[in-house]
Design brief:
alpha/beta; Rossmann fold; pyruvate-formate lyase- activating enzyme; 2 domains; seven-stranded mixed β-sheet; 16 strands; about 15% strand
Length: about 500
């Protein structure tokens, strides 16, 4: 079989209307295409797989300004997602199915694979959930292989061997079912991300690049600057992957692309997709050395498209913020998470102090760069009083928007292990969405109370304390509480989202 005749169908089981385009599949697609393989994607983003879309839930929780996709002609598909997948497989006739899985979409992933099991096409699964919980994933009867860690090199090698009908059970990074057993191959050294082909969004189509930002919908490209993170938050997968590679002597997980590579790729993407907006995909944009940032800031003037990125308060200096302002940074995102610094240190392994965070955000406000404050409630052993310390901290700052998610104890992370040790979770517990987190069985606060505080978080943080008795009513999901929340929600949107 010629390489061009070998077909790979990616399945992207996504939370409904969560419109960030996955860099993982886009990178894997470009790697396969560069070697002559034929690639297509089945993407569930616009199918009705939930009662309410991800973005609408954020609107309802006052995390984002209301918006509409209607002008772009985007709406929820009326077709059945399983019927369409069957048709896609029947028409495309792939030789390999590659599915990416995160814990939030694990159940959807398995149901999608079950709907096409009669085609008897080999299936390889990858994604962060696979790397953190490979035994659970490969146990499914419809999954033949799993890929741990980065997939560009192992997937190219797999397709090469399959296209030549060669044995592929020895490929590094892959666990392969063979003769009733699972062959667990070792990890390979981490690749040089500067040498990867440019990202491929063609596989999703240009219409998939639309993304809402503060009430408007933009064509947005996502540009990978680095992989990994130099920090060790207990609720994040990055330190787990870092340790996985370290103990297998595979190299340093945190790697940055050089400025020449970034600029070349960006110019290519800008010419091809004509974006209105750029999202720099980096766990902490300003963690890079100042000289590297200066070079990038100088070169970025060749493009100058508005962008947003996320970083950490402890990476902020006035010099760096001045550079961001010159670069046309239109939005920043910061993780505050919790307002009690002792709790933040002990439970989250976050060493930044409230004074440090406040100083950093006031610098951002001084330069008039809009920002989002990310908060998480529902950590193990957290109390209502601790949550109100987070609210009080948010009252001291002036973000354009603020997010409040419920803690998601993803399997494999340090916070997941802590919750299991304390008996707050059982082995069958699942994270549904990052908005919802998971229901911990702890005495300090109940899940229903957390949901009430989540939907009123921005109200408590913004409105005068004279309104707090009304907001307390709005925490309740009864008729009176819902009516009060809708009233306060309209007032909030009028004042802060007009």
């Amino acid at each position: 079989m010629k390489k061009g005749d070998f077909k790979v169908l990616f399945i992207y089981p996504n939370t409904m209307m969560a419109t960030l385009v996955p860099l993982s599949i886009s990178s894997l697609s470009s790697s396969l295409k560069s070697k002559g393989f034929t690639v297509d994607v089945f993407d569930t983003t616009y199918y009705k797989t939930e009662d309410i879309s991800f973005e609408q839930r954020k609107v309802d929780l006052l995390m984002v300004k209301p918006f509409s996709y209607k002008d772009q002609g985007i709406e929820i598909k009326k077709e059945d997602v399983y019927d369409d997948l069957v048709k896609k497989v029947s028409d495309f006739k792939p030789d390999l199915i590659a599915i990416t899985i995160v814990e939030d979409t694990h159940e959807l992933s398995l149901s999608l694979l079950d709907s096409i099991k009669d085609f008897d096409i080999p299936v390889v699964a990858g994604g962060v959930f696979v790397s953190l919980s490979p035994d659970e994933v490969i146990a499914d009867k419809n999954i033949d292989m799993v890929c741990l860690g980065e997939g560009e090199e192992p997937l190219v090698e797999l397709c090469g061997k399959m296209s030549k009908c060669k044995d592929y059970s020895d490929i590094k990074n892959l666990w392969v079912k063979k003769n009733g057993k699972v062959i667990k191959n070792p990890l390979r050294p981490l690749l040089d991300i500067n040498k990867l082909p440019f990202i491929d969004y063609d596989v999703f189509g240009k219409g998939r690049l639309y993304r809402p930002m503060f009430g408007k919908v933009y064509i947005m490209i996502h540009v990978e600057l680095d992989r990994g993170c130099p920090y060790t938050c207990t609720f994040c997968c990055a330190p787990v992957l870092k340790e996985l590679y370290r103990k297998n002597n595979c190299g340093l997980y945190y790697r940055r692309k050089n400025v020449d590579r970034i600029m070349a790729e960006m110019k290519h993407l800008v010419r091809k997709y004509r974006p209105d907006y750029v999202n720099f995909n980096s766990e902490s944009f300003l963690a890079k050395p100042i000289e590297e940032l200066k070079e990038f800031a100088k070169r970025y003037k060749e493009i100058a498209i508005p962008f947003w990125c996320q970083t950490r308060p402890e990476t902020i200096t006035e010099e760096k913020i001045e550079l961001l302002k010159e670069m046309n940074c239109n939005s920043l995102q910061f993780g505050i998470e919790v307002g009690n610094e002792e709790f933040r240190n002990k439970i989250l392994n976050r060493r930044d102090t409230n004074k440090q965070i406040l100083k950093a955000l006031k610098l951002v406000e001084k330069y008039e760069i809009p920002y989002t404050a990310n908060n998480i409630i529902g950590f193990p052993d957290e109390t209502r009083e601790l949550i109100f310390e987070t609210i009080e901290f948010n009252r001291k700052i002036n973000p354009r928007t603020m997010n409040c998610n419920i803690m998601a104890p993803y399997k494999g992370t340090a916070i997941y292990k802590y919750c299991m040790e304390k008996g707050y979770l059982n082995k069958n517990s699942k994270v549904h969405q990052v908005i919802d987190g998971a229901e911990l069985k702890m005495d300090s606060i109940g899940y229903k109370e957390l949901k009430g505080l989540q939907r009123t978080f921005a109200l408590y943080a913004r409105f005068p304390k004279s309104e707090w008795p009304k907001i307390k009513i709005a925490e309740n999901f009864d008729e009176e509480g819902n009516r009060m929340f809708e009233k306060l929600k309209k007032a909030y949107q009028k004042k802060y989202f007009s």
